[in-house]
Amino acid sequence: MALDKFENSDAEVRKKSVSAKELSDHQLIDATKRGDEAAFAEIVSRYRNPLTNYLYRMLGDYEEAVDLAQETFVRVYFALERYHTDYAFSTYIYRIATNLAISEIRKKKRRKLLSLTGFFQTEESDGQEFNPPDEKTLPDEGLIENERRRTIEKAIATLPDKYRAPIVLREIQELSYEEIAQILGLGLGTTKSRISRARALLRDKLKQYLD
Amino acid sequence: MGMEKSHNETEILGADERKLREMCRSLKKVDAPANFDLKVRARLAAAKSSEPAPRFGFALRYALPAFALILVFGLLAYNGGFLSPDGNPTIARSTAPPSIPAAPQSAPVSNFAPQENVEQPNETVAPATEPESPKTNGKPQLAARIVRVSKKDLPKAKNESGGGSTVYSWKEAKSLTLPNVNANPVAPKSSGDKTGNPVSVKELLTENGIDADFENGRWSVKSVRANSAGADSGVREKDVIEAIDGQPLGGETILNKPVKSKTITVIRNGEKTQIDLRARQ
Hints:
- The structure holds 2 protein chains of 2 kinds.
- Chain A is an all-alpha fold.
- Chain A is 66% helix and 0% strand.
- Chain A is globular.
- By secondary structure, chain B is α+β, with helices and mostly antiparallel strands.
- Chain B contains 9 helices and 10 strands.
- In chain B, the strands form 3 sheets. In chain B, strands 4, 5, 6, 7, 9 and 10 form a 6-stranded antiparallel beta sheet that branches. A two-stranded antiparallel sheet of chain B has the order 1-2. A two-stranded antiparallel sheet of chain B has the order 3-8.
């Protein structure tokens, strides 16, 4: 892989991106391995928004989500040689993003270890900590802010980690059970079970809107 | 109850689940910022610049320092005497050939100061390779066993015995010094004059006008300078000097410098003669 080629001018990238859009993920990866800078730019273009959205729902912080999404692409780039096309690329990139998100969540937990909130957790709320979503408004969200949406966001953000990732992947990212199972490295049954449990928890949190 | 299709799956969802799904999907999709691609490129460039060079990376990081370390320690071990050239560690007492005492230059084992407690002061040289005898006790014995082998004698002894790393045995022996032990390879037991500096046979004879060389295991007089102590005492050319003050002479025998006189044993025409070497004032 020639990184310096990837850093070439945007004009050259735009020229090649026209043809790159017609390629599949695996074809783009093969082209990137051969040093085609436009191919990797197309991969970034395809996955930057879904990844940012997914990480935002996982972390509840837009800046962190963008940062981890960029880090995901960097890791993908340097790990392309090890990537096998036996699996879907979307599964591969979501898995990297999920691992980064889980690591970040654990770091946050360690930072909050001395926080008073930690002393009031019960065993039932294992893994469920006080983790309010980012209060900052999104760049273009000022006009559409409403109480219902915020409540939903908060309900998702306060789910335990092991339920949050599968429900976000299923209900927001709209991935299949098989894809979610591969991303999380779980069995299909376990994945379905966790999604079902996550729905039950969300139902309890949002029952005011369900009645 | 209703049917909801997601991707290629058919999923049965209750009313609440359907509502939940609608609520979740009603959330606004969060997009990446406009400069996302640019920042990814910047990160890639930074990561690339901090990556080690793929080629020769291993050699530069590990192999060369390891090789340098091995080289340095090898040299230190070699020069420090831990290893002999043939790779075997050598110890003086255990590796010198047993024939060393048979060397003609071997001198009596009188390497200690006269006032010391030496058990066998007139003992002839014991084999350096002789195993550590139970009778051997204390440092003086050890020192005597080590220092009695002279450097010049060793090659001959080696030839006679047919092997052994004698040179290194000598080196080990020379480096060992013990309190109250004369470290000279061969030294007179007592010359009666302890104030003089030790001199070699060659030097002593030259001082007295005798030009002699050590050939075939003996000191042969080549010439005698006129008006010297040697000439005055009657030493002649072709005399063979066998001993001084009764001490047999080897190639590297060290003598205490006399103040006034010495008695030398000379063989002339096959006859042994005692000559008093008178120092000229």
